[in-house]
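Quick question about two entries, pasted in order.
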Amino acid sequence: MVARVLRELEVPGNVIHEHIETARAKTQASARATVVPRRTLGSHRALADLKIESVLVREGSPAAGRTARELDLRHRTGALLVAIQRDGVLVENPDPSDPLGVGDVVYLVGSKDAVASATRELSVPPAA
């Protein structure tokens, strides 16, 4: 319960863990692992301005067949590609050298403008 209260107060996770371990050492030993509840991005006030968006890679998309490294979205738009859903499986922390395929869903995080810019770049077919 203490960990949940500290999380609500936005105390960093490593500090919460240290406090719990110190309290356990002073009061009673426990074989139980320390579990600090994780918060979602949206529940962090400091991250409230960040947006999360998903983009489906379609046939003709500039992203189809290209790697995250080649797309260089972070440098060009400010958006960060944080995950890919491929064949129903979420790939967290995707390898930037793996090519994106048609049907992949790309998850972007960044400011409103950065995410909008990256979404436009991934959604517009290349000029013929």
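Here is the second entry:
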Amino acid sequence: MRRRAYAGRGGPAWRDGRSGRGPTGWRRAVDTVVAVPVVAVARGLTRLPPRRLRRVMEVLAAGTRPAGYGQTLAAMEAVTAVSRTCRGPAGCLPRAVATALFCRVSGRWPTWRTGVRVAGSFAAHAWVEADGLTVGESFPPDAFRPVITVRSRPRGRVRPR
């Protein structure tokens, strides 16, 4: 039986009846092979000024369909498995960019956001969302105010200005 993951809210649920947190065996190896260059590209992109980074992310999001929660979570897990920077607390921007790029490899795109903390001292943060939920984050949804948002844009749809 072919194993395909459903994009559910709680992570992958496999069609062959087994349940687990993620891919095993050859799928993990493929994810690692894809994640390493994706993280390298993401680290380079994070050095761009915010305006140029947003434009690059918008170009990459063109012609994609929205990524589901399960796919986005699996992408984030693959990225954090190969990068110490992306795993760390200060690695939110490379983690979010790499997760979006990892999803882009399959023609999907999560909602990619950067923003600032609403209450308390100033803090900037970057994160991804799928199915209206933040992926892999521990903060409440209203803790940060989005400043830059890049959503998937299927082909043929004109970008609003």
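Reply: The longest strand covers residues 111-117. Confidence is low (pLDDT under 50) at residues 1-20. Hope that helps.
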